[in-house]
Write a structure and sequence with these properties.
mainly alpha, 6 helices, binds zinc ion
């Protein structure tokens, strides 16, 4: 494990030759640890943030209807379990819908 961390650190500290991209020059232990956790929870059938983002509307509809997304439910749940960006997006969507519902005349 220590060897892998060293290897990762070496790879990530290599200066980027691509202009216009932000080069990662150093990673602290906390970042390495986070990266290792992400590597460990990554699945072969992982959804990308974009894929999750594209089905968040549907996901929220399913939450409201107490149903699920079928095959994709577990994948989306899994992604939301470790991706703070998508969780933020989901929370924003849910609160937008809730405030829209509150504004709705009864
Ligand atoms: Zn994501």
């Amino acid at each position: 494990m220590a060897q892998l961390i060293e290897k990762l650190r070496e790879l990530l500290e290599r200066p980027s030759h691509t202009s216009g991209m932000v080069a990662i020059t150093a990673l602290d232990d906390q970042s390495i640890e986070r990266l290792m956790v992400l590597l460990c929870v990554t699945r072969d059938d992982e959804l990308s943030c974009e894929e999750v983002f594209n089905c968040l509307d549907e996901y929220v509809d399913c939450l409201a209807a107490h149903s699920d997304l079928g095959d994709r439910q577990a994948l989306v749940d899994h992604h939301l379990g470790f991706c703070a960006d998508c969780r933020d997006e989901l929370n924003a969507l849910v609160s937008a819908l809730q405030s829209a519902a509150d504004d709705w005349p009864n």
